[in-house]
Design goal:
Blueprint: H1 2-5, H2 8-15, E1 20-25, H3 30-39, H4 54-61, E2 64-67, H5 74-82, E3 88-93
């Protein structure tokens, strides 16, 4: 998820890279949660998050941040983000979702 790589915004800001990051925020580490669901019978640890507002985090780095709550606002927000001269982050809160996990190599489960 974005928490693993958000520090790359620092580089994008310093170099003026017109990067548009779209964060579908489900408030969990989905890949890890899927593995824990499959391997540990839904006993979860460290995967359900109280995420920061990623639009605000973008602003801390010097990028432009957007927070989109209504689906009908997504297209205009993306167009505006593409018009910026530097990096942007568009955060879209979504319901918790994590896809089923693929078996790990060498795993019998």
């Amino acid at each position: 998820g974005f928490l693993y790589t958000s520090q790359e915004l620092n580089t994008a800001v310093r170099w003026g890279i017109p990067l548009v990051s779209i964060v579908l925020n489900n408030n969990c580490h989905g890949a890890e949660k899927a593995q824990q669901q499959r391997l540990f019978d839904e006993r979860y640890i460290g995967v359900d998050l109280e995420s920061p507002r990623f639009d605000k985090l973008a602003e801390v780095y010097g990028a432009k941040g957007y927070y989109v709550e209504r689906p009908e606002d997504i297209a205009d927000t993306v167009r505006d983000a593409l018009d910026q001269n530097g990096p942007t982050v568009i955060e879209i809160p979504i319901e918790e979702y994590f896809p089923p996990a693929a078996p790990l190599p060498g795993s019998s489960r």
